[in-house]
Amino acid sequence: MALIDLKSLDKASLEEFVKKERLPAFRARQLIHWIYEKNVTGVGDITEFSKPLREKLAGKARISGLAVKKRFASEDGTEKYLLELEDGNQVECVLIGTEAPPGEEDGSREKFTLCVSSQVGCAMGCRFCLTGEMGFIRDLRPHEIVEQALCVQRLIQPRKITNIVFMGMGEPLNNLANVAEALRRLTEFMRFSGRRITLSTSGIVPGILELPRSAPSVNLAVSLNATTDEVRSRIMPVNRKYGLAALLKALRQFPLSGRSRITFEYVLLGGVNDSDEDAARLIKLLRGLPAKVNLIPFNAHEGAGFSAPSPERVLAFQKILTDARMTAFIRKSKGTDILAACGQLKAAYM
Ligand code: SF4
Predict the structure, then answer these.
(1) Distances (CA, A) of 220 to 36, 170, 255
(2) Separation between Cα atoms, residue 166 and residue 179, nearest integer Å
(3) What is the pLDDT of residue 336?
(4) Considering only CA atoms, which of 56, 47, 115 is closest in space to residue 80?
(5) Given the CA of residue 168, which atom of ligand 1 is nearest to it?
(6) pLDDT at position 9, please?
(7) Which ranges of the chain have pLDDT less than 70?
(8) Which CATH code fits 68-338?
């Protein structure tokens, strides 16, 4: 008989499993604690259980994991992991170390952000993105998403992942049910604060409206990248279905708690979306929205069909935004030497 993968079970199914095994209900809580907080990889490692109980469980259940196929280290400290799923498909995730901004230190100046994948490949076909080029293979299941965090956490001990962003391979809102369950496990089982998790979307309007209803509250980021429908549809095909007006209308309805803001990612493509007029239109589009803009100068790569903007252009674009009292940061891409930067996740896989 095939062993039951405990990691593939949600809370209700774990409770059901425990009941079926005629174990007291608190064993389900203990299993969650050992799998998601203690991060064990085998039933035999649950030392809180007696030896006979561990042996009994080992005959019925297992705890799945991802195989680390490759680990790349960038000169700037960024690390990329190529992880193999049980069906042989592979995904990538990236660990980015940064200094926490003053006031957000939580006792440590270092922040380790893990960028996780939500799908194998991606169907969205954004023109500036290498993952988009590989097409869609399949959705990741909840435990395959959460396991990226557990697996990397085991590897980087004693360092600790402090933040999680859904910005790796895939469009998370195209896999909303599984992503929502993964978010529940990250927040409830692994006790990650929702304030330290960011989900990034290319702009799937129904998903933006559904997210607050079906998942724990997390930060939202939108990959915007253009200020007219004409340009956005050209570089992001999703815009042909959900244009800028519909997208911004949905974002205005998105519930934000306290001082939180929506992050707008804006990849600056030389001569495409980096003009003064674009900056002025961006201000107009985001007026009245609690927003912060991340400007990401494009990483030119072979065959991309786009070029990087000049550093002067990037600064001039930012200045127009900040002069209008918008919060706008220039994000230096990390891990470009190992193809771990934004929009570059696919190289090792292919
Ligand atoms: S940018 Fe994101 S949504 Fe667009 S193709 Fe790449 S992975 Fe998919």
Answers:
(1) 24, 15, 10
(2) 9
(3) 64
(4) 115
(5) 7
(6) 97
(7) 100-109, 302, 333-350
(8) 3.20.20.70
Q: What is the pLDDT of residue 103?
A: 55
Domain ranges of the chain: 4-62, 68-338
Distance 166 CA to ligand 1 centre (A): 11
Q: What is the pLDDT of residue 61?
A: 97
- The atom number, within ligand 1, closest to the CA of 201 reads 3
Give the count of beta carbons closer than 10 Å to the beta carbon of residue 253. Answer: 9
The reported pLDDT for the residue numbered 51 is 96
Secondary structure percentages of the chain, helix, strand, coil, to 5: 40, 20, 40
Tokens standing for 289?
A: 């929205």
**Ligand 1 centroid vs 255 CA: distance in angstroms?**
24
* Fold classified for 4-62: DNA polymerase; domain 1 (1.10.150)
Q: What is the pLDDT of residue 131?
A: 81
Dist. CA 190–CA 183, nearest whole Å = 10
> Residues enclosing ligand 1, CB less than 6 A?
122, 124-126, 129, 131-132, 169-171, 202, 223, 343
At 106 the pLDDT is: 52
Q: What's the DSSP call for residue 350? A: -
Pocket test for ligand 1, best of 124, 200, 235, 264 (most atoms within 8 A of CB): 124
Cis previous bond, 158, omega within 30 = yes
pLDDT digits (tens, 9 = 90+) for 51-91: 999 999 999 999 999 999 999 988 888 999 999 999 999 99
For residue 236, the ligand 1 atom closest to its alpha carbon is: 4
Query: What is the pLDDT, as a whole number, of residue 80?
Result: 93
